[in-house]
Amino acid sequence: MQAAIQSPEQAGSIHFQLDTINTLLHELYPAAYSRHTLEKRRWVLSTFARWATNEGLTLNHLDDAVVNVFLSRLPNAPADRIQLERGVIQRLLRHLRTHGIGLPSRSGACLGASEGLHADFVAYLRDERGLAENSIQVYGPYVLQYLKAQDLGHGQFAANAFDVTTMREHMLTMAGVKSSEVTRLTGVALRAFCRFLFLRGKTPADMSGSIPSVKKWRQSAVPAFITAEQLSVILAAIDRATFSGARDYAILLLLAHLGLRASEVVFLMLEDILWRKGELIIHGKGGMIEHAPLLSEVGEALACYLRHARPGSTSRRVFLRTYAPHVGFTGPAAIGHIVRRAFVRAGFHPASRGAAHLFRHGLATTMIRQGATMPQIAQVLRHRSEDSTAIYAKVAFETLRTVARPWPTTEVSS
């Protein structure tokens, strides 16, 4: 690669030549950006280069703080413009760092004591415990909050930071100002943190058993679900002739007919579709690898999407963004957005949260009303706990009526 600045020693003044910008933009071509989008990025890079030159900055001065100063030059700029410019310039910084130019990213050695230990804890959850990214994103922030409360600065923690009494006091403080669910999740996160501290040799014993648990009472209400009639209306409202419609239709069938979780849809890979065997490989919770039957209707929808609607991409994910860059979804929230958009088109407005999970509940409800047993439902939904399946007993209204005892009454004499 022929760059305008070829080494850190040559980074005297920040002067981007045309070939430098073209080289960076060339990296975006495989992502299938439109010509208009590429020209917008060229304009951002040129504007940033002129601004930095006028400020007397060198390439070795460039870091995230400089980006923030550049973006603050237009205080009334629309949020989407700020987001565009930040993304383009951050990509420039990564491009320069790859070639040994610019300041390092604020990570690794630049992290404080709290962030550094938290990063190690997150790596432990991911690499050694095998937790899903969703679970890490839930538990991680509670540990980071606790660590920051114990951080004295200059790389030092309070003397009793890793003492179980301090952790319990932290939980009591949370219970006084936060909901019971936040307190419960804090306890779960701190128990995992205690195990991590013991395994890393930072505590002489595993103190996880001394962190109190908060009872989570299962709601007695009947779980919300989508009926077969509602499902038909929702599917019929999708325009399958469009690229996004073909994709969304296949996604909804996976949710409704196979009971997949949103995260399982997001991380479905091309090689997970075993066409000849008629199976899908599902990457379930806790790193579990499971198999599900590839039903004919689901297989036809997937084949239609892959043949006619899936954009060209080097990504191995089955479902991709319809707009450039054509990559997989960042997380399960994207599936929820697709589901809610389908609900709006069908005029369906559920009151409950967790839109994608309504299809899973609907599948279980249909099965139990057709006479399926709890173990059969647990097998289809890939439950590892009987308690998770037991909630669906509440939807068997007709069966429950046969075992319900009459309400006792007393005769009133006239």
Description:
- The protein is globular.
- The protein folds into 3 domains: 8-98, Orthogonal Bundle (DNA polymerase, domain 1); 111-210, DNA polymerase, domain 1 (Orthogonal Bundle); 228-399, Intergrase catalytic core (hpI Integrase, Chain A, Orthogonal Bundle).
- Residues 1-13 and 105-110 have low confidence and may be disordered.
- The chain is built from 17 helices and 5 strands.
- α5 runs antiparallel to α6, α6 (133-150) packs across α8 (180-199) and α9 crosses α13 (333-346).
- A 3-stranded antiparallel β-sheet has the order 3-4-5, with no helix packed on it.
- 52% of the residues lie in helices and 4% in strands.
- By secondary structure, the chain is mainly alpha-helical.
Q: How many domain units?
A: 3
Percent strand equals under 5%
**What is the radius of gyration?**
27 Å
Task: Write down the CATH class of the largest domain.
Answer: Mainly Alpha
How many individual helices? 17
Order of helices and strands: HHHHHHEEHHHHHEEEHHHHHH
CATH topology of the largest domain: hpI Integrase, Chain A
| Biggest sheet layout | 3 strands, antiparallel
Mean pLDDT: 80
Assembly type: single chain
CATH homologous superfamily grouping of the largest domain = Intergrase catalytic core
Spatial gap, N to C terminus: 102 Å
So what's the overall shape? globular
